[in-house]
Specification:
With 89 residues, the protein is mostly helical. The chain has one domain. The protein contains four helices and no strands. Helix 1 packs across helix 2. It is extended and about 50 Å long.
Length: 89
Amino acid sequence: MNTSSVKVTYSLDLLTVREVEVMARESGLSKSEVVRRAVHRAAARGDALAPQPKPSKAEALKILQSGPRPSPAELEARMKEVREERRAR
């Protein structure tokens, strides 16, 4: 397998982004590796372009809200980063 990488930009819906983030966090893989493996698996199954049912807005909201939430320590660390960024401006 070719190990060289090419940096690309794609637009994804929020639900897909959230799923990639959760999969990466749970597996310990990078988000790029999660996407790479998903594409390879879909291509191997031959369903790379099979239509996927789109959840309703209510279903999507429920999925997003049921996902893992940051711990209080993670929230505090993020708030500290934001404050420092704002002071640097």
